[in-house]
Backbone:
């Protein structure tokens, strides 16, 4: 049965793979001298609106989730909800800081498949009202749990981390509920991604947040494949970044500071993801890996476009920008 | 063409004087024929006062909505507000009436909130004291220990093991006392020296400490009885408050609903006007209007305005502008639109494939699922789904009807041959049905080719029209390979016809540099273009064969369906035959029904859409006074 479900997904992916930007286009994007020149190169009118591109990735994810067999479909649908979370965080920030309504709306990713009325959420006068409006969604309860702490200290961090932890814990459970080849694919693609995220979180809390060990442990995942509780405890107790990075298979130069090291790990992880995804699209795709690979390629494309747009805005040269791209590897 | 081609759009700019702004915007919103665009010409400025007004209305709507929810008012449709709309003035009256309503419910709200909190705190106290029942000491003696830090509180149940992991550096006690929903009542203790670590660990796990209510005095059993008595009294007060709510709801609902509708409509108007730039007294309303509606819109605007309105209409230039897509699909076609929109929305330059996809999907589905009985079951399932307000129901019902039609052609019902097949029995004519499937596929691919030519023509994309794999050269190659091959094979055409193949292949190979030479279209460097061109050529030629043969599955599934159904029939004799028949039919309809749907969808998306459809459009969403507007009647994909 799953083979047939994947057939429709494969039809969708194969029809769309050819639309990923080719090497020539990337070269022309890097050669462009101003951000205004970028849009026409990729066939868009005017400037590139990154939010819209991200919305298209989200749309592809929700379309594909509908084709897949139940367990895999549930996993991909949940994985795709990261865009909804991103929007939810934008709303929380807008309400917390009292951001201008139109600016907040412009920062949202346009999602075709969404359960919430984002305009109404942005207009909610308080964070309690935001939570009331998303009542019944899985993210309402974690936010309610964190609300007391937020009200005491007025720090958005508690709300954001509550949602993130809930999202990733469920993602881990869904990965672990897969069977057969889908389980292997989910672990290889998503499990690795989660582990890297967890490692980066732990170090960021230690380096930027100067958090205590117990806080670091409470704000990270305990089941995160290659970087679970043991790793987090070591990080919390002061394990050097290079050591933990090496355990995860990343090599970072000893000359780099811990802050630079984090950026380097992030880039290496993104490139590794990209390589996996490229390799997977060259093989028969009647598996979950084909779907995840396509979504990753799409996301990598948007990520690289973001780097180019931002790079052009800040006046970086094509060579400098090229060094920061995922596809440079 | 009207069902295939999007409505021609006209860019319309209305220069409106401030006194006419509300009336003109109101008229445009009522017509639902203008898709607004944000345009800020040089020297024009935004209108912060309208921004403020839009925020004011959204605040009013929110307050009205909250009050309706609290009182449990029945949901009402967002119908049009009565009378003319004047957002600059209406808010005053709405605000005044809302404040009067708020005053009426204020006392009830305050009492409800306080009573609810009181009850919640007592219930928590009850659960704590309940745990102390085995102890025979007064509750007040447990407060204020000297060498131990003991904390009781609630936290998300999932965080209990996380706290235990976080306290890995100190000795501690962590006892989950009770769980309710996803919350756990927890007792945590450590030595006073480690109190700070315990506190940090608990706080970072969203632990909320609770203190015993002052009513809890004496031995635990006595304290518990006192708390229960008090809780009973509070519950009675809550019941009284609920009766008061029902009374308030019946009294206030009509006014609340009317205000809510008015605020929503005014808010939408203010929201739209907020986007209009102004230059002194003049406001610019800019957007897209379907060409057929331009005169109607012009008349409505002129009659709504008290002063002259300058209206500028410009032809759309889809190569320079992102023009929204409006396809006026007939009502019967709308349930099938999702077959296309799941993949993408057609852009302004593209033909909308919904009609062709609907017809071809149903034919392919019926061909693979041809059986009068099975089709009927699917039809009934679809009608039932539709009855449950699921849009998908119509698609399922239509697929069932198509299955029934092909069932007549195959002469089959529930796997039995009940009549002479009007066309053939798939198992008796395997070759015929397989060849028909491939031929049908070739027809669909050629429709795709044709649509690509039209789309390329509409976009003035000459390389795509002439040189690319789905353009003139590609189609010629496809036909030379297919038609020429068959013609030569059957001796109808001379073999030299095939000599044209290398020429067409060469053209396809060098299409990118050639397009660059003729039309100066962007191209990779010559070497790179030739290398990628070679591989693309290889992929194209093999693709023509594999794309056509891909449709063979239509015939194969038809044969498999009949085979599987016959198998069920052959085992359905004897005492338990009816059970075999029932389970077999459920399996065939449920399992195969889904599979053939997916297969048909795959053929549409990959084989058919791959020829011509980009799907990067954006829907025409007209300015309207209510959510969604009358989009359905306009056939808008929103």
Residues:
């Amino acid at each position: 049965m799953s083979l047939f479900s994947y057939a429709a997904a494969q039809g969708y992916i194969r029809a769309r793979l050819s639309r990923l930007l080719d090497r020539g286009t990337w070269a022309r994007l890097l050669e462009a001298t101003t951000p205004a020149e970028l849009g026409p190169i990729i066939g868009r009118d005017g400037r590139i609106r990154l939010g819209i591109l991200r919305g298209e990735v989200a749309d592809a994810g929700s379309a594909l989730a509908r084709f897949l067999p139940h367990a895999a479909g549930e996993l991909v649908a949940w994985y795709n909800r990261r865009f909804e979370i991103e929007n939810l965080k934008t709303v929380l920030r807008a309400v917390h800081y009292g951001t201008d309504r139109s600016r907040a709306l412009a920062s949202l990713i346009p999602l075709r498949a969404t359960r919430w009325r984002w305009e109404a959420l942005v207009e909610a006068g308080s964070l309690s009202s935001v939570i009331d409006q998303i009542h019944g969604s899985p993210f309402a309860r974690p936010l309610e749990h964190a609300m007391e702490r937020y009200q005491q200290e007025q720090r958005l961090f508690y709300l954001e981390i509550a949602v993130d932890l809930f999202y990733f814990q469920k993602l881990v459970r869904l990965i672990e509920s897969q069977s057969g080849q889908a389980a292997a694919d989910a672990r290889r693609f998503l499990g690795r991604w989660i582990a890297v995220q967890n490692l980066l979180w732990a170090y960021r809390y230690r380096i930027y947040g100067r958090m205590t060990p117990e806080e670091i442990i409470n704000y990270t995942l305990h089941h995160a494949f290659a970087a679970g509780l043991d790793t987090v405890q070591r990080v919390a107790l002061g394990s050097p970044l290079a050591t933990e990075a090496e355990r995860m298979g990343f090599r970072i130069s000893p000359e780099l500071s811990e802050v630079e090291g984090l950026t380097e790990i992030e880039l290496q992880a993104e490139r590794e993801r990209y390589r996996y995804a490229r390799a997977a699209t060259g093989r028969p795709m009647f598996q979950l890996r084909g779907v995840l690979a396509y979504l990753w390629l799409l996301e990598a494309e948007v990520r690289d476009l973001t780097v180019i747009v931002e790079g052009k805005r800040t006046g970086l040269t094509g060579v400098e920008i090229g060094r920061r791209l995922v596809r440079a590897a | 063409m009207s069902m295939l081609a999007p409505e021609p759009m006209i860019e319309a700019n209305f220069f409106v004087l401030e006194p006419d702004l509300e009336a003109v915007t109101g008229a445009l919103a009522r017509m639902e024929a203008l898709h607004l665009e944000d345009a800020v010409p040089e020297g024009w400025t935004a209108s912060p006062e309208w921004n403020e007004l839009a925020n004011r209305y959204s605040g009013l709507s929110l307050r009205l909505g909250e009050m309706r929810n609290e009182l449990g008012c029945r949901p009402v449709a967002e119908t049009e507000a009565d009378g003319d709309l004047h957002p600059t003035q209406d808010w005053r009256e709405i605000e005044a009436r809302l404040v009067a309503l708020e005053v009426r419910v204020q006392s009830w709200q305050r009492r409800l909130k306080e009573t609810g909190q009181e009850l919640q705190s007592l219930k928590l106290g009850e659960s704590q004291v309940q745990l102390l029942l085995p102890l025979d000491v007064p509750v007040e003696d447990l407060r204020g220990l000297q060498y131990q830090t003991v904390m009781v509180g609630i936290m998300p149940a999932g965080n209990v093991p996380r706290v235990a992991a976080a306290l890995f550096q100190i000795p501690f006690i962590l006892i989950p006392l009770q769980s309710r929903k996803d919350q756990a009542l927890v007792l945590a203790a450590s030595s006073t020296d480690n109190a700070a670590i315990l506190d940090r660990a608990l706080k970072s796990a969203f632990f909320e400490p609770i203190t015993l209510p002052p009513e809890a005095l004496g031995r635990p059993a006595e304290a518990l009885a006192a708390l229960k008595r008090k809780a009973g009294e509070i519950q009675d007060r809550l019941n009284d408050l609920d009766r008061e709510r029902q009374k308030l709801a019946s009294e206030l609902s009509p006014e609340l609903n009317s205000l809510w509708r008015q605020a929503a409509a005014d808010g939408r108007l203010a929201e739209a006007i907020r986007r209009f730039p102004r230059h002194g007294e003049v406001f610019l309303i800019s957007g897209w209007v379907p060409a057929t509606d331009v005169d109607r819109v012009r008349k409505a605007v002129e009659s709504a305005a008290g002063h002259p309105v300058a209206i500028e209409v410009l032809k759309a230039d889809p190569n320079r502008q992102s023009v929204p897509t409006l396809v006026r699909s007939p009502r019967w076609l709308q349930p099938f639109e999702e077959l296309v929109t799941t993949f993408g929305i057609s852009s302004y330059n593209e033909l909308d494939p919904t009609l062709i996809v609907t017809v071809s999907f149903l034919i392919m589905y019926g061909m693979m699922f041809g059986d009068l009985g099975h089709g009927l079951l699917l039809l009934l399932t679809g009608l039932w789904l539709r009855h449950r307000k699921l849009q998908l129901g119509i698609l399922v019902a239509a697929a069932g009807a198509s299955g029934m039609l092909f069932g007549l052609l195959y002469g089959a019902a529930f796997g039995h041959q009940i009549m002479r097949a009007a066309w053939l029995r798939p198992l008796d004519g395997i070759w015929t049905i397989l060849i028909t499937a491939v031929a049908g596929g070739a027809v669909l691919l050629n429709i795709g080719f044709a649509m690509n030519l039209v789309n390329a023509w509409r976009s003035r994309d000459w390389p795509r029209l002439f040189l690319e794999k789905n353009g003139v050269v590609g189609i010629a190659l496809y036909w030379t390979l297919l038609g020429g091959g068959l013609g030569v094979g059957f001796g109808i055409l001379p073999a030299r016809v095939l000599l044209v193949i290398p020429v067409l292949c060469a053209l396809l190979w060098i299409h990118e540099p050639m397009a660059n030479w003729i039309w100066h279209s962007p191209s990779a460097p010559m070497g790179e273009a030739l290398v990628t061109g070679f591989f693309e050529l290889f992929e194209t030629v093999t693709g023509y064969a594999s794309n056509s043969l891909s449709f063979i599955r239509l015939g194969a599934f038809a044969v498999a369906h009949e085979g599987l159904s016959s198998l069920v029939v052959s085992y359905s004799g004897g005492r338990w035959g009816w059970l075999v028949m029932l389970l077999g039919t459920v399996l065939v309809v449920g399992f195969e029904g889904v599979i053939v749907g997916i297969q048909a969808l795959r053929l549409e998306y990959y084989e058919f859409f791959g020829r011509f459809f980009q799907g990067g459009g954006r829907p025409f969403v007209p300015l309207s006074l209510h959510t969604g507007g009358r989009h359905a009647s306009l056939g808008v994909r929103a």
Remarks:
- Residues 78 and 170 of chain A are 8 Å apart (CA to CA).
- Chain A touches chain B through 52 residues (CB under 8 Å).
- The mean pLDDT of chain A is 89.
